[in-house]
Amino acid sequence: MLAVLTDRILAPARLAAPAAPTTTPQTPTAPDTDRKTKLLPPYKVLLHNDDHNSMDHVVRSLLRSVPGLSRAAAARIMLEAHLTGVALVTVCPLELAELYRERLESCGLTATIEAA
After folding, report:
1. Is 60 helix (H, G, I), strand (E, B) or coil?
2. 28, part of any domain
3. What are the residues whose beta carbons fall under 8 Å from the beta carbon of 84, sequence distance 6 or more?
């Protein structure tokens, strides 16, 4: 008897189709990049070659100073600076560029920033 009652109660729920959404989902809009660029103009952080620091120290300093930088990217930046005299570390808003430059300089490296 209990099984019959349970089947009668649960059967309509099992057979019912899922309810259709009453509203359409809003698609996220892409941020207005022109507006962001005007508010936070990009700056380049540049690493300059020097004869005082070892290559290992430069890679370690890049990893410590710029979050999110991979070891391979840090090695590539170090090698570019070593071979050409200067390398682009990152492009970011001014405040972050100043922070990264100060961090690199605190490690004994030569870094500058300029408008992108």
Report:
1. helix
2. no
3. 49
Six-digit token string for 77: 């930046």
Residue ranges making up the domain that contains 86: 38-116
- Contact predicate 89/77, CB 8 Å: yes
**Residue 67 within any structural domain of the chain:** yes
Buried b / exposed e over 8-36, threshold 16 CB at 10 Å, is eeeeeeeeeeeeeeeeeeeeeeeeeeeee
- CATH number of 83's domain: 3.30.1390.10
pLDDT digits (tens), the chain, 116 positions:
555 555 565 555 555 555 665 665 565 566 666 666 667 899 999 999 998 999 999 999 999 999 999 999 999 999 999 999 999 999 999 999 999 999 999 999 999 999 99
The DSSP string of 4-47 is: HHHHHHHHHHHHSPPPPPSSPPPPPPPP-HHHHHHHS-EEEEEE
The structural domain count of the chain equals 1
d(CA 29, CA 58): 40
